[in-house]
Amino acid sequence: MPPAKKRARAYDSVKIRAALRNQFGHVREAVGTLTPEQLALGTRLGDWTVRDLAAHLTMAVETVSRNLARDEPPAPELTLLDWPFATAARAGDIADGTRDLAAAHPDLDALYARTEERFLAALTAPGSRVLAARTGAMTLSDYLVTRTVELVVHTDDLNAAVPGLEIPYDRQALAACTRLLADALASKAPGGSTEVRIPPFAVVQCVEGPKHTRGTPPNVVETDPLTWIRLATGRLTWKDALDTAKVSASGERADLGGLLPLMK
Fold it and tell me: Which of 104, 40, 82 is CA-nearest to residue 184?
């Protein structure tokens, strides 16, 4: 008998909206301090510069107001757990749009100010509103959780690209991003033989095999939130994480290398 489908995790809409406001504010403040030399630095995202990445971060939240401006679809097409696996098809369009946006807006301060104003206005819309997102129609409440992934992942990209930048992470945004990607793993590899621990935010059971019921699980993976996010999004390989002791894995079913990354 196949494993029972896990119930989708619930997210507090008020907390998610506050987390997004805070995280975008952290990014805007940091981008405003960047020098021309820092903006010209490379990133771990192919040929994107820091300027390109900074512009892309505005796209991540501008999609909320832009999608609200479109006609409302009759019903959602994607759930939260579908979304991580629906993003790869749009990677090429996103890359092209990012470069065009960065070239068209040399004044990043103005771009961030306009984006923030529109984004904050969009956050007043009801969570049940269905958005015509390009990955597939979703409710606004679900779509806002996906924005925590975009903001947290690309905040980490910026911090990696600019030595000493150290943009802070809103705790609720980091928690939501971690949990969504952990639940996506459990959805991709359903089962109960392996326990994945990402303290203090998430614990999930996954991978087919004998289900653990009590005591210490025979197959355990444990890591911190940012390492997990890097693994899930392809910023860090499973092998490198093991080799640098960023992740601990014990048990014959604790090798997640074949399941990662979840998002490409």
Answer: 82
pTM above 0.85, yes or no: yes
CA distance 49 to 55: 10
Question: Each residue of 201-248: pLDDT tens digit?
Answer: 999 999 998 765 666 778 999 999 999 999 999 999 999 999 999 999
In eight-state DSSP terms, residue 169 is -
**Cα–Cα distance measured from residue 205 to residue 82, given in angstroms and rounded to the nearest whole number:** 18
Cβ(196)–Cβ(206) under 8 Å? Answer: yes
Residues 6 or more apart in contact with residue 136 via CB below 8 angstroms: 76, 77, 78, 82, 83, 86
Rounded CA-CA distance 253/264 in Å is 24
For residue 86, give the nearest of 146, 8, 7 by alpha carbon: 146
CA dihedral 62, 68, 73, 78 (to 10 degrees): 40
Per-residue pLDDT at 215: 62
CA angle 117, 134, 68 (to 5 degrees): 35
Burial class (CB in 10 A: 0-12, 13-18, 19+), 212: middle
Give the amino acid at 114. Answer: R
